[in-house]
Amino acid sequence: MNLIDGIILLLLAAGAWQGYRRGLICTAGGLIGFFAGVWLAGRYYLPFARFLGERLGLEKLLTAIFIPLCAGIPAGGAGILPFMTGMGPGAVDPSGFPPPLWEPVIALQSGLSAATRAHLLAGAVTKLIAFFIIWGCVTYLTGLAAAVLTRVAHLFFLGGLNRLGGVGLGLVERTLAVTVAVGMLTPLVFSFALNASGSGVAAGIAKAWRTSLLIPYFTKGWNAAAPVLQQFFHMI
Fold this sequence. Notes:
Elements: H1 3-55, H2 58-70, H3 103-109, H4 114-153, H5 159-195, H6 200-211, H7 215-229
Helix pairs in contact: 1-4, 1-5, 2-4, 3-4, 4-5, 5-6, 5-7
């Protein structure tokens, strides 16, 4: 186990504890909010990312920041980098889901210039930010509504039963949330590492990601859900 595994275990434990504190009704509402948040984020993260990137100038700002990062690798690719040693053939799959987030990896393998790679990396980060903003807002608002229902439910249900059910649902909700986070963050982790010549903090994170005991299970869950998610995720 490494630091990433420890963080995941803490997140799962926090989800169970939060479910205990919030109770069954509130946690069930949070689970509904989770699915609604992923659905709405998948539908609208690309249009929202265009707003953040073009209207607010976020993509231009990030591109300027990332150009020095991407300048370390010449056009034509990076070859086998240190953090990739021992990785299986499918460890970094640029055909993964969702495709817009894998564009920086494809750009590196295609031999595009550092400026182009920086622009694509900035776009991928902007899309990721847009996704998590929408997902977080929907989940938060749904949680507020569920909290009101929980207060009403306390008048009719035993507190202990409500809390016990909340533990189970809280763990389920947090497991699903970590699965989505891992699926969305994986292309970004490897994009940063590849465009940074496989050295430094980015490569260290990518190596920890690769050697994690838990990440592969969440990745399998994400890949299993991908055919369903493709039905409502905007791809372009």
